[in-house]
Amino acid sequence: MFLVLCLVTSASSVVILLVLLGSIIYQGIPAFDPPTADIAIELKEIETRLAALESAEPRDQSSIDDCQSRQEELKELQATIQGTFFAKPPSPNAREAGIGPALMGSIWVCVGCAVFFLPLGVGTAIFLE
């Protein structure tokens, strides 16, 4: 009976760990999910406006520069949203920062603990039985 209790406890702890990790992943992704369709629409509007400004006479260089800088910002944001945030290393520059090494380290620690300590706990329970 004690062996069954130990196995159930070990299995339930693994399930709880997986549920917690799943909830962290699930809640973390929507928090960083700005509307990508809105970014694409704004990029098209800026490209249209930029083409109109460049063909207009007289040329308003400050407006053209503003449009070009906003276009670059949106392209960088779009690249960040497309998954590089989860692969890049930390950086002092917020636009270049990511959580790749921290995420992989957390996953490796969880896997290492599960691989090492679950059999150790089950073996201890069997030995004490």
What features would you describe in this structure?
By secondary structure, the chain is mainly alpha-helical. Among the domains are: 35-82; 89-129. It is 78% helix and 0% strand. The chain is built from 4 helices and no strands. The chain has helices spanning 2-31, 36-55, 61-81, 100-128. The longest helix has 30 residues, at 2-31. The protein is rod-shaped, with a radius of gyration of 26 Å. It starts with a helix and ends with a helix.
Query: What's the alpha carbon Rg, rounded to whole Å?
Result: 26 Å
Largest sheet, strands/sense/barrel: none
Percent strand: under 5%
pLDDT averaged residue by residue? 81
The helix count comes to 4
Q: How many E strands?
A: 0
